[in-house]
Write a structure and sequence with these properties.
By secondary structure, this protein is of the alpha/beta class. The chain is 39% helix and 13% strand. The protein is built from 16 helices and 11 strands.
Length: 410
């Protein structure tokens, strides 16, 4: 392992407040020692390791986003999946720009356990975590407990029809197997995702219905036992602006209720994950910057770290004209990050993807005018957009965290 790789990964872990665990970094073409990677599915061949000498930018004219962020002590990264990084151009871009990899698909149950009767399949998880290691990145594992992410082989009866013992075996057995397999290789786990709304804990999810309200606390305890050194995160959305379902102020208030109950019960929650899926239309009018500052400060006052885990900007409310739309999206990035990154407890910023070539919003929320979505820093051709400039500018002006480094690229 190159010495620079260990330095870089140690410094990144330090910015998250983690110990310098023995983690594997870039390979320069060599194999990972001790790897348990199984053969990859033929449909998506495994990516080759990225050479540690990959330049910071394609033309060498600018630093990578991760390096700019680390000057202020922040860990910048993005989500991706094995099917995305089978695209060589995108793989190079991702390896260049990100320092932490959010596992977008490959640790969800439709990959891990496609049907109720299937055993655990770690091929996709092995490959995406191996990619992060080969490129000197940290890994943010998502999601250990969620009421979505199941494959077509699952029905509601397969979950809601379980008795408590069977539900515990299924949920907690899967959680322990996943965390134990990747112990020491994943810097942070999203243990519980989207488990409350603006009214309290969500009771309409199968784990609550079969196990009961203690399932979240139990999941955190089991994750801590399985991987004592990883950062454990409670992750949710809707804290920034009102939506059709509830006011953001109500969601923030419930977040404190849930966090306080967990912390008062000595549940090992280390951080709050703030998804930050934003919408450009009406954001300037609907975003209460001072209330949001207070929210982040109150989270920090509880001794928790904060990670922005899934940031993107839905370009609704913006015209189909690309130039106007890109400016509206960029302005939303700027307005939000000017507030969020002022809080020193925010230790990581993760965008949900890097390029419009691979955005979930295109499939799940297509525009009414059929224009392609443009929510991310790079366009479909992997060219920086105004939102990239807004993101880079926010990172350049980042208030200094407790420590700042400019580590080597690998």
């Amino acid at each position: 392992m190159p010495d620079g790789t260990m330095t870089r990964r140690s410094l990144l872990r330090g910015a998250l407040g983690l110990g310098a665990a023995s983690l594997v970094g870039c390979t320069n073409g060599s194999e990972r020692s001790g790897s348990s990677v199984r053969p990859s599915p033929a449909a998506t061949p495994p990516p080759s390791p990225v050479d540690c000498d990959t330049p910071d930018a394609a033309d060498g004219s600018r630093p990578a986003l991760w390096a700019t962020a680390m000057e202020g002590g922040l860990v910048y990264g993005s989500s991706t999946a094995t099917w995305q990084i089978s695209d060589p151009e995108y793989r190079r871009l991702f390896a260049r720009e990100a320092a932490i990899l959010f596992t977008e698909d490959d640790l969800l149950w439709y990959r891990l356990r496609p049907t109720p009767d299937s055993g655990l399949d770690f091929r996709f998880g092995d490959r995406i975590i191996g990619f992060a290691e080969d490129t000197g990145m940290l890994t943010l594992g998502a999601h250990l407990v969620w009421d979505e992410g199941f494959g077509e082989g699952w029905t509601e009866d397969d979950l809601w029809g379980l008795d408590e013992e069977a539900a515990r075996d299924l949920l907690f057995g899967t959680l322990q197997a996943v965390v134990e397999r990747y112990r020491g290789r994943v810097a942070a786990w999203i243990v519980a995702n989207e488990v409350f709304d603006a009214f309290g804990m969500r009771a309409e999810v199968p784990w609550y219905g079969t196990i009961g309200p203690t399932y979240v606390a139990e999941a955190f305890h089991l994750a801590r036992e399985a991987d004592p050194d990883a950062l454990l995160i409670l992750n949710d959305f809707g804290f920034e602006t009102d939506d059709e379902f509830s006011p953001a102020a109500d969601k923030r208030a419930v977040a404190f209720q849930v966090l306080d109950e967990l912390l008062d019960g000595d549940v090992p929650v280390d951080a709050l994950g703030v998804q930050a899926h934003l919408t450009s239309g009406g954001f300037a009018e609907g975003f209460d910057a001072e209330a949001y500052r207070r929210f982040l400060a109150e989270v920090a006052a509880r001794g928790l770290k904060i990670l922005i885990t899934e940031m993107d900007v839905l370009d609704d409310g913006a015209p189909s004209n690309v130039g106007s739309r890109d400016r509206a999206v960029a302005e939303t990035y700027r307005r939000y990050l000017d507030v969020a990154l002022d809080e020193p407890a925010v230790v990581s910023l993760v965008t949900f993807g890097l390029s419009d070539r691979y955005t979930w919003l295109q499939e799940d929320y297509p525009r009414e005018d059929s224009a392609p979505r443009r929510p991310l820093p790079f366009d479909e051709e992997l060219t920086p957009k105004p939102s990239f400039a807004a993101l880079a500018s926010s990172l350049e002006q980042l208030p200094l965290r407790d420590a700042a480094w400019v580590p080597p690229r690998c």
